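STRUCTURE:
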């Protein structure tokens, strides 16, 4: 089973890009292990994942738009939580 994870950007740009590449390799490997009964579901999900790759890897330096994943450094995300009282 493939599990989705929440994204956050590391402070090191190289490590961040490496984590995105790792995620892509993981998904591609797991997709080859899907049982035949789930093949259609896997193909649909992988189609969605192709969009994720375009937005988050191929266009990594372009501004995000509504609906995109928010990849901000974890330090910044923790600060947002503090600001709202967590």
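SEQUENCE:
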């Amino acid at each position: 089973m493939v599990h989705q994870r929440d994204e956050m950007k590391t402070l090191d740009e190289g490590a961040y890009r490496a984590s995105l590449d790792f995620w892509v390799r993981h998904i591609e490997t797991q997709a080859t292990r899907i049982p035949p009964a789930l093949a259609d579901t896997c193909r649909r999900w992988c189609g969605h994942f192709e969009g994720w790759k375009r937005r988050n890897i191929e266009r990594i330096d372009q501004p995000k738009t509504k609906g995109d994943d928010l990849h901000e450094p974890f330090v910044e995300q923790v600060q947002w939580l503090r600001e709202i009282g967590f």
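REMARK: Residues 13-83 form one domain.
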